[in-house]
Every structure is written in structure tokens, then in C-alpha cells.
């Protein structure tokens, strides 16, 4: 039986031209559940007033009492009942303005919103925190909870229903990770829908003149069920060939060859590009890294000469538990090597959104340029889909990057991921990638070193593997105990002038924070990740030496060095944050950071600061909002029900700061590619705010300079459809003789403008200090 229903939640109730308001008016005979603004819209279309709430409540929880309405079947009610819900709103329905046809069904049961940790009072760590600060708690000098200090004087309407229509609304978010009984609410709404259609189906069909038997019909057999569909590949002429027919194309082909990603779609996506059959060769050297001076010495000896031009290093310089384990490094040299440089078009009309110019330099130095109408990510997707390989080639390798594209995506690529526009043109390319066909990999857990080389199947083997093996085995750890000291003694800048200058003064930045708070108060956003840049002229200098100094002073699990010499561009990144990873088993993982505090000078002060962060209501709200945002982003490309949060609001410690980190995982659907996953979540929500699209629009109107590489992602896209990308923070970008560092923070309703400026300075202090010390 056909059972139609709708769940409505949209971003701006003032947008009266939107379809959702018309749906609420016209679809009177279809079950509808309005969530948050959908709840407010339900009230609005029937004449209720939508007004400012007593205070904005975003990423915080309230206890709820209800009247026993069917929507709340089997859900407790009232104070201390366990029915706690997450709220994201600045506006509410004025309960006194409700028309007779709208019935109130739920309210907040207490006078104040709660932090997430406060709702977990049985947690051992909370008991420890209270015990640790017992003396401070007695005299009132310290509380583990950081509150807004505002108290609601009235209870807030949390739910309504229509008296004659199957329409319901809830002000809170039942889908949030921290809402209790959210699943039960959706189960109840489903049962309401089923019963409604059981009783109303004949009259509905008659009134709508609607043939339900013809609606939403699916093919008897989905294309993905065709036997062997994953072995279908494009032969370059728009034809599809099965695995079995491959022998007619290539002699000595292996019967177990498979193709990457959604290879059945290659001919539809990229009919002009031939398939590339790649072969991987690799060697392993057990426990070699420590014997030759570590990752730093290996990179400097193999790739650090000639200013380390056209080199890369994804550097896990902090390898503590549950952080990155492998480092990948390499440079120009292989026959498949090339560099992609993409710059968005300056034209901003919507028909060209995401389009731009791509320059490709090959291993011989030849360069070609083309205009990409569909943007860089579509090009990258087609490139990755064109690779075919034998999975047995990398059996035994404990990591997922076996060669492929390595580089960065700038923040401005957001226009290829749903953002409406870019207000600021980046001075650096919007994306730069090497195709790495030769690389060295270090396993920091076992100290093993791997060397890998890929080539097209019909080409001859290059001597790179043998040559690199000889270089590694000839290294002496005693030659350079610290690794790369000769480089560190190299050129310092002779043109360095003064200290870093921030694009926005303290007063200007605080005014920008106030603007954000106004937008939040008016319900335009829940959280806005405001940023700015600081800059310093440095002239010509040893950029690799600077990176080596930065990684020593501020080691990080997702650090990176990139040198695109043709662009006069170097990136020295010490990021602690993973954006998104897809492994060979199809598991997607995001690890957003929201919440940062400086480390203490003593052990006691350091522990106090760590707990202060963990129990900060503001930081919990920031983190929770981004967790829910990323659960939604991953849900767009993951199997239903697979998205989960194994770690929520953990505190991780680094050289200079403590950070609050959550982990979100899900199982990728079989009908989406690696690039589809990135497009669904880029830019990382921790750098935009929530809701993402509207927040990016607002930030574009507030910020006065391009973010460039900052706020984007650095990492790899392996030819086997895996990837691992960071969030570009704590990073020095050196371009055309200027060093720039981006910094900022999440603005929420609980933000203090002066504190937000101080947090921005804190986040830039480690890379800025590294530059000053090195120069």
C-alpha cells in the first residue's frame, strides 16, 4: 500500500516564496511532520506569530513534557523523566497566538537549557571532575560548567498538532545524536501515517485523481543487480566491456583484474578518456625508519635537494593512539607524474558556477590548458573512474594510498559543492595536485618503510624502485641525527619585515563577531565559523627548513608539506584535524574539531584547562552542532542506518592546545564514488558552521578576504578510490614571497566577542611563532 508522508525542515521561514509553506497549505490530506523551522512554518501558515525566543538555543538540550499525544507514545514526560531534546533555534511560536485549529502538545519542562555533559551526570569523568575541583567548588571559585548566565522566565512551546489535519510540528531536532527517544518519535509518526492511510486511502485517491499503483514504480531489476556490473569498464570509445572480454584488448591480461569505483558508469561520465590499466610494484623494509634517522631524514635525503621543488609529504608527525599512522612522501620523476593546477573562472553567473581553467604539466615538462565547464571535482571524478587495477597488487599493504593524486582543494571549491557563489577571488590556485606514481611510505607503528611505484600495464618498468632501495639502505642515522640539519642552515630571508599583520584589527574582528551574533539571534544560522588572515612579507627563504621547524615545534597527525614550484607556492601545514577518509572497506570517517583551549604551564593547570574545555557549555554546543551537520553530510552518501558516532566530544592534547574532537563513521553506498563523498561534505562543517549553505553565504558577506588554501583540505585520492583529507588549519602558506596564516573560530549564541578574538590569535600562535623563530 502506498503511504505518502513528508518531513519538513527548511532554513528560513521568512522566505514566503518557498515551496514548503505552500505544501503545508495545500497538502492538507498528507501526513506532515515539521521539524524546527518546519514546526514554526506550520504555525505561521495558520496565523500564529513567530517571535524571538527568550534566548537563542543552539546545540543545547531541554527536558520536555508532553500531553500524551500519539506522536509521543512510549516516551516519558517531564522533569527528570529522561526525555531530553536538542534545540537549534532563535525563534519560537508565540503560544498565545495559536489559532484554535493548532493544539499545543509539548513544552520545555524546566526553566533553563542544559549542556550535553550536564545530561550525562552519571558519567564517571564528571564525578572525577567535581572531585578534582572540590575545594574550588566549595568556595565558588570554579565550576566545571560554563553557562550563558541567562535564565528563561517562561516555558517554551516544543510541539503542536493540527486539530483536523494529520500535521504535527516539533521545535526540537529528534534526529540529533544527543536527543533522547528521537527514533521513537519517527516510529510513532510512521504508525500515525500507516493508520491514516489505512482509513483514508480510498477517499484520498478519489480526491487526488491519483493512480497509486503507477506511482514510484521501480524497474523489475536494478542495474546494479546485473551480474558482473562492477567489472564493466569503458574502452575509450564509449563501449562497455566485461572483465571476460579484457583479454581481447590486452595480451597477457590477468583474469582477476577489477576496476575502481563505479566503473560501470565510466562511459556515461567520460566517453573520451581511455581506461588506464595500472600495475603496482612495492618493497618493504622492516624497521628501517629508526635505523636511518626517521621520516625527517628520509625525506631530506631523498627529496630535500634543489629546494625540494615539486615534492609532497603527508606527515604524521604526531602518532599517538587513534591518530594518523602513516606518512607518504615523494617528488617528480615517474613517467605518469603530472601536476594539475585549477583556477576558478572570474565570471560568477550561475551557469558557470564551478567552471574554470585547468593546466596540466606532464613528466616531460609539457603543459596543456583547458576550460572545465563542469568544474574540477567532476574532472577528478572521471580521472579516478578511468583507473583499472588488480587488487592483488596491494594485498599485504596496511595503508590505502598506493599512488594517485595528492595535493589540496581550496575553500573556494565550495561553489562545486552547493555554495551559491564566491565573493572573494583567491590569489592561490583553487586546487593543485600531483599525480604521484612513485612514493615512500613510513609506518610509524612498526617503523617499517615501503617504496611503491605504479605504471601503465603495457609500459616497461622504471629503475626507481631499485635506485630508491639503494639510497635508503645507504643512509646512516649517525650522519644527521636530527635529520636535515644542512637544510636548516640554508637560506633565511633577507627581506623579512616586521611581525605578522592581521587583516582585521581587534575592533574590526569584534564587530564581525557582533554581526554573526545578530544573524544567529535572527535565526539565520546556528553557528558561524568566522575567520581572518594574518600576513608577513618574507621574500626568498628556505621554505622546507621552515616546515621542518614547524613540525618539530607543533607536531600534528595530519601535517603536510607541499611545494608547487611552478606556482611559487609552498604549504607548511600542522593540522590536527581530519576532514574525511574513505578506506578500502568503504568506511567513511570524519573527525571534526570544535573547542580549543591553550595548555597550562603546570600539570595541575593543564589538567584544569582540559576539564574546563570538556565541560564548557559553549564548546559542547559548537561540537554537537558540527557532529549533527556531518552526520547529515555522511548520510547523503552512506547506507541508511550506517552512520554512527563512536567517539563524541573526546578531548585530545597537542603541543600547545587541548581540542574537543568527535568521530563520525558510515558505510559508503555502492552507487557513489569517492569524489561524490567529498562533494557531499566539502568544505568541512567545522570551517563553515550550520546550516552549512546559509552560513557560507553569511560568512562571504562578512569576511573581506579570500580564505584560499586555508579552510580547504590537503590529502590524497588513491587510484583505488580511497582518500584521506585533512582540514587546512594551523598552516603557513608561502606564495610569491608572502607568508599567510588563517585563523578563526565558531561563533555561537554563547560567544563572547572579546574571547573570540583571543581564540583566533591562539589558533594562529603556533605557526606564527614558528615563522618568527625560524627567520
TrEMBL record:
Keyword line: Folate biosynthesis, Glutamine amidotransferase, Signal, Transferase
GO molecular function, one term: 4-amino-4-deoxychorismate synthase activity
Family membership noted in the UniProt record: In the C-terminal section; belongs to the anthranilate synthase component I family.
Catalytic activity: chorismate + L-glutamine = 4-amino-4-deoxychorismate + L-glutamate
Pathway: Cofactor biosynthesis; tetrahydrofolate biosynthesis; 4-aminobenzoate from chorismate: step 1/2
Chorismate-utilising enzyme C-terminal domain sequence ranges: 506-763
Keyword Oxidoreductase assigned: no
Residue stretches making up the Anthranilate synthase component I N-terminal domain: 307-451
EC number: 2.6.1.85
UniProt keyword Transferase, yes or no: yes
Domain Glutamine amidotransferase residues, every copy: 28-112, 149-189
Any one annotated GO CC term: cytoplasm
Pfam families xrefs: Anth_synt_I_N (PF04715), Chorismate_bind (PF00425), GATase (PF00117)
GO BP terms, alphabetized: 4-aminobenzoate biosynthetic process; folic acid biosynthetic process; L-tryptophan biosynthetic process; tetrahydrofolate biosynthetic process
Annotated signal sequence range: 1-16
The protein's name: aminodeoxychorismate synthase
Amino acid at each position: 500500500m502506498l503511504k505518502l508522508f513528508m518531513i519538513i525542515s527548511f532554513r528560513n521561514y521568512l522566505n514566503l516564496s518557498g515551496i514548503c509553506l505552500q505544501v503545508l497549505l495545500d497538502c492538507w490530506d498528507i501526513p506532515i511532520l515539521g521539524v524546527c523551522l518546519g514546526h514554526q512554518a506550520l504555525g505561521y501558515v495558520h496565523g500564529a506569530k513567530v517571535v524571538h525566543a527568550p534566548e537563542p538555543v543552539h546545540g543545547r538540550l531541554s527536558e520536555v513534557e508532553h500531553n500524551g499525544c500519539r506522536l509521543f507514545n512510549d516516551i516519558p514526560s517531564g522533569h527528570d523523566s529522561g526525555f531530553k531534546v536538542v534545540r537549534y533555534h532563535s525563534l519560537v511560536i508565540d503560544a498565545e497566538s495559536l489559532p484554535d485549529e493548532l493544539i499545543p502538545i509539548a513544552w520545555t519542562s524546566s526553566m533553563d537549557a542544559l549542556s550535553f555533559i550536564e545530561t550525562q551526570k552519571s558519567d564517571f569523568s564528571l564525578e572525577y571532575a567535581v572531585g578534582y575541583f572540590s575545594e574550588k567548588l566549595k568556595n565558588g571559585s570554579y565550576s566545571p560548567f560554563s553557562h550563558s548566565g541567562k535564565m528563561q522566565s517562561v516555558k517554551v512551546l516544543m510541539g503542536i498538532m493540527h486539530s483536523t489535519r494529520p500535521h504535527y510540528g516539533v521545535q526540537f531536532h529528534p534526529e540529533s545524536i544527543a536527543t533522547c527517544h528521537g527514533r521513537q518519535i519517527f516510529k510513532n509518526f510512521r504508525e500515525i501515517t500507516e493508520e491514516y492511510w489505512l482509513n483514508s486511502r480510498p477517499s484520498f485517491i478519489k480526491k487526488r485523481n491519483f493512480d497509486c499503483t503507477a506511482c514510484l514504480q521501480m524497474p523489475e531489476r536494478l542495474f546494479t543487480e546485473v551480474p558482473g556490473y562492477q567489472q564493466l569498464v569503458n574502452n575509450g570509445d564509449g563501449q562497455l566491456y566485461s572483465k571476460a572480454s579484457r583479454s581481447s584488448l590486452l595480451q597477457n591480461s590477468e583474469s582477476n583484474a577489477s576496476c575502481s569505483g563505479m566503473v560501470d558508469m565510466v562511459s556515461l561520465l567520460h566517453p573520451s578518456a581511455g581506461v588506464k590499466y595500472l600495475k603496482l610494484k612495492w618493497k618493504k623494509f622492516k624497521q628501517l625508519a629508526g635505523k636511518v634517522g626517521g621520516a625527517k631524514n628520509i625525506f631530506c635525503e631523498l627529496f630535500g635537494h634543489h629546494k625540494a621543488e615539486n615534492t609532497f609529504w603527508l606527515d604524521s608527525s604526531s602518532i599517538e593512539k587513534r591518530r594518523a599512522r602513516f606518512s607518504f612522501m615523494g617528488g617528480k620523476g615517474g613517467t605518469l607524474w603530472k601536476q594539475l593546477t585549477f583556477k576558478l573562472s572570474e565570471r560568477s553567473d550561475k551557469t558557470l558556477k564551478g567552471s574554470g581553467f585547468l593546466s596540466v604539466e606532464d613528466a616531460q615538462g609539457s603543459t596543456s590548458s583547458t576550460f572545465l565547464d563542469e568544474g574540477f571535482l567532476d574532472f577528478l571524478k572521471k580521472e579516478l573512474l578511468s583507473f583499472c587495477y588488480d587488487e592483488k597488487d596491494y594485498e599485504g599493504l596496511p595503508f590505502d594510498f598506493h599512488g594517485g593524486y595528492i595535493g589540496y582543494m581550496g575553500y573556494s571549491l565550495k561553489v562545486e559543492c552547493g555554495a551559491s557563489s564566491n565573493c572573494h577571488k583567491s590569489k592561490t590556485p583553487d586546487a593543485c595536485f600531483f599525480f604521484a606514481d612513485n612514493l615512500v611510505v613510513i609506518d610509524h607503528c612498526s617503523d617499517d618503510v615501503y617504496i611503491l611505484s605504479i605504471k601503465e600495464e603495457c609500459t616497461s618498468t622504471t629503475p626507481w624502485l631499485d635506485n630508491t632501495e639503494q639510497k635508503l639502505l645507504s643512509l646512516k642515522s649517525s650522519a644527521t641525527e636530527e635529520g636535515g640539519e644542512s637544510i636548516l642552515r640554508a637560506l633565511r630571508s633577507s627581506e623579512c619585515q616586521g611581525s605578522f599583520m592581521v587583516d582585521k584589527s581587534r575592533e574590526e574582528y569584534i564587530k564581525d563577531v557582533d554581526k554573526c551574533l545578530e544573524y544567529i539571534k535572527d535565526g539565520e544560522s546556528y553557528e558561524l565559523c568566522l575567520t581572518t588572515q594574518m600576513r608577513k612579507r618574507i621574500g626568498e627563504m628556505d621554505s622546507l627548513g621552515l616546515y621542518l621547524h614547524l613540525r618539530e615545534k607543533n607536531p600534528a597527525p595530519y601535517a603536510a608539506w607541499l611545494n608547487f614550484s611552478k606556482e611559487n607556492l609552498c604549504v607548511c601545514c600542522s593540522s590536527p584535524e581530519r576532514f574525511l577518509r574513505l578506506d578500502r572497506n568503504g568506511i567513511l570517517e570524519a573527525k571534526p574539531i570544535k573547542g580549543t583551549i591553550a595548555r597550562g604551564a603546570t600539570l595541575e593547570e593543564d589538567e584544569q584547562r582540559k576539564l574546563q574545555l570538556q565541560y564548557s557549555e559553549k564548546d559542547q554546543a559548537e561540537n554537537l552542532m558540527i557532529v549533527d551537520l556531518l552526520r547529515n553530510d555522511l548520510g547523503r552518501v552512506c547506507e541508511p542506518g550506517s552512520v554512527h558516532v563512536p567517539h563524541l566530544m573526546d578531548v585530545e592534547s597537542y603541543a600547545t592546545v587541548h581540542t574537543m574532537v568527535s568521530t563520525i563513521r558510515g558505510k559508503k553506498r555502492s552507487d557513489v564514488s569517492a569524489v561524490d563523498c567529498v562533494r557531499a561534505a566539502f568544505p568541512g562543517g567545522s570551517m563553515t558552521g550550520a546550516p552549512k549553505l546559509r552560513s557560507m553565504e553569511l560568512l562571504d558577506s562578512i569576511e573581506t578576504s579570500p580564505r584560499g588554501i586555508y579552510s580547504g583540505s590537503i590529502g590524497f585520492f588513491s587510484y583505488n578510490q580511497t582518500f584521506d583529507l585533512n582540514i587546512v588549519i594551523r598552516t603557513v602558506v608561502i606564495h610569491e614571497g608572502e607568508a599567510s596564516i588563517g585563523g578563526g573560530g565558531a561563533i555561537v549564541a554563547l560567544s563572547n566577542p572579546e574571547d573570540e578574538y583571543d581564540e583566533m590569535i591562539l589558533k594562529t600562535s603556533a605557526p606564527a611563532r614558528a615563522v618568527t623563530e625560524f627567520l
